[in-house]
Amino acid sequence: MNHFQILIIGGGNAGLSVASQLLLKNKNLTIGIVDPAEKHYYQPAWTLVGAGVFDIKDTEKDQSNYIPKNTTWIKEAVTTFLPEKNTVLCSNDKEITYDYLIVCPGIQLDWDKIDGLKETLGKNEISSNYNFKTAPYTWELIKNFKGGTAVFTNPTTPIKCGGAPHKIMYLACDYWLKKGILDQCDVHYISGASVIFGVPEYAETLKKLVSKYGIKVHFGANVTAINGGTKTISFETKELSKDLENKFSNLQTSDYAIIENKNEDLFSKVSLNFDICHTVPPQSAPDFIKNSLLKDDKNPLGYVEIDKNTMQHSRYKNIFSLGDCTNAPCSKTGAAIRKQAPVVVQNLLALINGMPLNASYDGYSACPIPTQYGKLMLAEFDYSNKPKMTFPFDQAKPRWTMWILKTKILPWLYWNKILKGTA
Predict the structure, then answer these.
(1) I need a surface site. Which of 15, 181, 290, 408 has the fewest CB within 10 A?
(2) Which member of 104, 161, 173, 277 is catalytic?
(3) What is the tens place of the pLDDT at every residue in 357-371?
(4) Residue range 302-313, pLDDT digits in tens
(5) Are residues 188 and 215 in the same domain?
(6) For residue 102, what is the domain's CATH number?
(7) Active site residue 161
(8) Is residue 400 part of a domain?
């Protein structure tokens, strides 16, 4: 069968949730799900894997066990879209046609945008929790660290789970504090963001945490290269060289180098030696979206162009998109998908039935940020970057109950309720 009433691109959280919810509303829909992956991953737990409190094996399941019944799983990779013809092309030249299309293949990790990273990842004391194979290595680095320079990076691009780059840093610092070696650790956070967190109420909590752990923060910085052999990380920053010299004043001069620029508007180039490094790659829309007619031409990262409230494509009205691949100005999280999915379902069914699209997504997202082992701050907010708290207490305060939510309840909900469309 090469034609479907509804074709879904992507079998991750978004694709399976939407398919399940659609069938709960109307079991007679003919739905195809295009995704070549044999495995399905619960990626929100990879930070916990890197912190030594979650087994990586529990984050991987067979995709076949979660494809909703009464759908057709097409194990192909998409190459491009022909929206004027209601057609999707796959890598084996297979054409699939549709009446309605839902695009949600997730986000692309651009490891090659940092020179040397792909070659050294998973060895030379360089790891990343954004990789299934290397997340356990992060824990090896943290628990075996004896002191020295520890670097944690965050790219300049939007990323999935925007808090993940510093979540692991806080847990590492807490581990070293309890081990009695934090005063021997020189911790650097090299971030492409301009602030520690975009919502002021939650940022205040994290600023205090950064101060408590003695973390040196470099905002507006772009990591350009990592050399595993010399254990050197290079980045560009608009911080003035004098400020950088003050920040690095407690290091040996051999530990860093600054190449000054004559024009202060240009980036200063900095290299820093490290003993361990947790890095996060730049991210963008998958190439098959980036090179297609579905992309937002004004977005350099190639995201799908949608109405941020209805989740309908701006130009192709029988196409919807959700999850990490869209240009909606929200955080790219599983919590966002959980709120987007019912909007897509309601609006798509309304479109099929010739009704107005009344469901609206307000940009809700959530970021569970562990501040130490056993305590977590659940940051919830919307498009306006205003807190949107679920629980009847101040969620800017880290709590043990929120740690239990993150480590026990949410993983169970994901596998047993969210993917089945019932949560």
Answers:
(1) 408
(2) 161
(3) 999 999 999 999 999
(4) 999 999 999 999
(5) yes
(6) 3.50.50.60
(7) yes
(8) no
